[in-house]
Write a structure and sequence with these properties.
The structure is a single chain. This protein has 519 residues and is α/β, with parallel strands linked by helices. Helix content is 34%, strand content 23%. The chain starts with 8 loop residues before the first helix and ends with a strand.
Length: 519
């Protein structure tokens, strides 16, 4: 199977060694000066306009302008809608999460940019963005965004926040669900006074699984909002993800501690402060990005299991349960899973991943090639070597491994001309009656210096050890060694996957050699 995307990047990163420069600093400086002198242009170049080429200056899709006549508000309101990138290509039955954003006359550019960036990189689900402009920026905004019982900017204690939430839930969201295939989970984002209404919604409604309050003056009315949300938490209602991002305003520390103490385990709370590096105005875009990333941190492909590949799609079934609605895995992750399953020889599972990808995001450009690869893999017998099987292989007993216990010093190389400095140390020891092993690459920084061996087997001619590749392809790096005297040497290969170069050939096999240092 041809895999053009992988060019042994993970392997080369793991095997990279420091190379001598071959030149002193003075020599390099001299050569550099001579080179610069040689290529110095004779005339200063100019920038030439390319009028036929356009450059995008913003992330995300363009917003569409709508209006809706509300019986509840007795008004006709403007609504800005941003559809997800896959909307036109996805299956008609696919439904999308909905993100409600207040102050819609100003919030579309930042929320569209951050939502697109996060969803493209597999950190949040694609969603339909519904941005609601204010009827006017002063009294109308205060009236709509202030809940009854609280005074904001000198307002009365009987403002229209509840009616505004009723309008969103009873009129706007049903229209979005009907016209644009919207659905749960729903997210509510508000800044300043919008954060007041967002927090009030979290305290009084079960519509929103995630609420992001940005620079919200929680202390108004003697912590009226805090008391509301703490009381809600004590009632242990439906699950909630509440994020408070703060610059000038926010939660009093004591109130936040009380909220955390009262919150049930189904609630996820997060708070960050950005003062003095951010202001009330500048924090908005950053807070939208971090708020969405935090609210959906368990959805992120960075939180999904790495191995076995067959565990990744079931992981998102569990995440769907916590979010209260079915959510598709990220497009980028689905593509990776499909390719990895094909390399692992799992045709049926690859076909399932392909169908999920097409239904959720549309057919990829290389669909014909993928379907041919899937059909070819489905015709094969089941693989005899799998990543799961390799990682589940029992380690040898101390007696079986007796001839290999101790330290071995050596190198791994791709090119026979590479210097051999003995930079690697293979340690095989007995700890609490069990054989354990690790490889130390001394020149690397501490977090990357030690690799714990995950596969160890004694063979008729020597020993094979291995561990998971640090990047894709997600195979086991197997070092198959032959013992001759005090030297263990051999070749490395990918275990559990059929990894090929773009031309269909097997990748080059690094060589290794270790010499016993001490028992």
């Amino acid at each position: 199977m041809k895999k053009g995307k992988f060019v042994l990047q993970g392997l080369l990163c793991l095997l990279a060694v420091g190379l001598p420069t071959g030149l002193s600093f003075a020599q390099r400086r001299s050569n550099s000066s001579e080179s610069q002198e040689a290529i110095r242009p004779q005339a200063r170049p100019s920038l030439v306009a390319e009028v036929e080429r356009s450059v995008s200056v913003s992330r995300g899709s363009g917003a569409q302008a709508f209006k809706i006549t509300s019986t509840i508000l007795k008004q006709t309101r403007q609504i800005n809608v941003v559809l997800p990138a896959s909307f036109a290509q996805s299956a008609p039955e696919r439904r999308y999460p909905v993100t409600i954003v207040l102050d819609g006359e100003a919030s579309v550019p930042p929320i569209t940019a951050v939502s697109d960036e996060l969803s493209r990189n597999g950190q949040i689900p694609e969603s339909i963005i519904i941005a609601i402009p204010n009827i006017d920026p002063l009294q109308g905004r205060v009236h709509d965004l202030t809940p009854p019982g609280l005074s904001v900017s000198g307002s009365s204690l009987n403002e229209g926040g509840d009616r505004f939430l009723d309008f969103i839930e009873q009129e706007l969201l049903p229209a979005v669900d009907h016209q644009f295939r919207g659905g749960a989970p729903r997210t509510f984002i508000g800044h300043s006074s919008g954060g007041i209404l967002a927090t009030y919604a979290a305290a009084t409604r079960s519509t929103y699984r995630a609420v992001i309050a940005i620079d919200t003056p929680i202390n108004l009315g003697e912590n009226w909002l805090a008391k509301k949300l703490i009381a809600r938490a004590k009632d242990a209602p439906t699950p909630l993800r509440y994020v408070s991002l703060e610059a000038r305003f926010g939660w009093p520390d004591d109130a936040w501690k009380l909220l955390n103490s009262a919150a049930p385990t189904s609630w996820k709370l997060h708070r960050e402060k950005f003062w003095p590096k951010e202001s009330h105005e500048s924090v908005v875009m950053l807070a939208m990005y971090l708020g969405l990333r935090e609210a959906f941190s368990d959805y992120s492909m960075l939180a999904a299991p790495v191995t076995p590949t067959t565990s990744i799609l079931p992981y998102y079934t569990k995440i769907s349960a916590t979010l209260g609605a079915s959510v598709l895995p990220p497009r980028k992750l689905l593509q990776n899973v499909l390719e990895d399953l094909l390399m692992e020889g799992r045709g049926a599972a690859a076909h399932e991943a392909y169908n999920t990808l097409v239904a959720g995001y549309g057919a990829p450009a290389n669909s014909a090639k993928l379907l041919a690869q899937i059909a070819e893999v489905e015709r094969r017998p089941p693989p005899t070597e799998t990543v799961e099987g390799l990682l589940a292989t029992p380690f040898p007993t101390p007696e079986e491994a007796r001839a290999y216990l101790g330290e071995w010093v050596g190198d791994v190389w791709m090119n026979p001309e590479e210097p051999r400095k003995g930079r690697l140390t293979l340690r095989i020891n007995v700890v609490d009656g069990r054989v354990v092993a690790e490889v130390e690459d001394a020149p690397l920084p501490p977090p990357y210096r030690i690799r714990h061996v995950e596969y160890l087997r004694i063979t008729p001619t020597g020993l094979t050890y291995g561990y998971m590749n640090g990047m894709r392809p997600r195979g086991v790096l197997l070092y198959e060694g032959k013992l001759e005297g005090d030297t263990l040497s051999g070749k490395m290969r990918f275990g559990g996957v059929d990894f090929r170069m773009p031309d269909g050939s097997l990748p080059p096999s690094p060589s290794f050699s270790f010499k016993r240092a001490r028992n």
